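debug: dumping io for the single-chain case to check the tokenizer round-trip. Nothing else runs in this session.
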Amino acid sequence: MAIKLIASDMDGSLLTNDKRLPPDFFQVLEQLHQRGIRFAAASGRAYYTLRENFAPYEDRLDYLCENGAFVSCGGKVISMDSLDPEVVSEIIDCCEKLPDAQLVLCGKDRAYHKQPPAEYTPHLQCYYVQHQVLTDLHQVTDPILKVAICNLKDIRTTHAALEPIFGSRLNVVVSGDYWMDMMNPQVNKGWALQQMQQYLGVTKEETMAFGDYYNDIELLGQAGESYVMANARPEMFAYGNHTAPSNEDYGVTRIIRRVVLGEQE
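debug: decoded output
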């Protein structure tokens, strides 16, 4: 069955280790556009950050943002899921008692966080290009789509502290080497991809997906053609039906060229 929709994770999948797009990405994107095949960036990154990442071609893509809490297709918001403000307040209180846990409240138009130690600044600015520094995060009144937490020392320690408290109420997932995310229980990249499939009238079998980390598991499960990146953690390979070359070897565009566009490598 012909592929009509391609969804790819960003960090560790589409992007190289130094956060660059494959050099042929926009050429591949143009070929997909000419064939009527849609490409969606599926990321924990914010919508405004992703649009900046893909400028000046940002209007040629669709977006599954904030690990699925915000979905935009053809410039139209088709899904947006926010957390209960009381739960957000509880998360703030819990995180402020944890060492090395830098909390980020992810709103639709900007992120909110306290002034971080200097070593955290590049990590926050990479993912949240629109942000506001506050002394008290309880001041935030905007709807919060996702709570992200960065720990440069050991994110698994932070996850182990928060998962028993919130795991029965929220989707609490490690999303990177230094990051974890907390969303409403039904929210994940696969749920978001399903919203997009239904909106576009595209089936699971007509969908291709790429991922490398735990927050990509549901995304891979929602695609008939699922590719785990060669650089993924070993336990991730059980969740895809194919392996793509690593992100450093531009695996996403190589697979698209060969499998979707029918080019010879």
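debug: round-trip ok. Residues 85-183 form a domain with the Hypothetical Protein, Haloacid Dehalogenase-like Hydrolase; Chain: A; domain 2 fold (CATH 3.30.1240.10).
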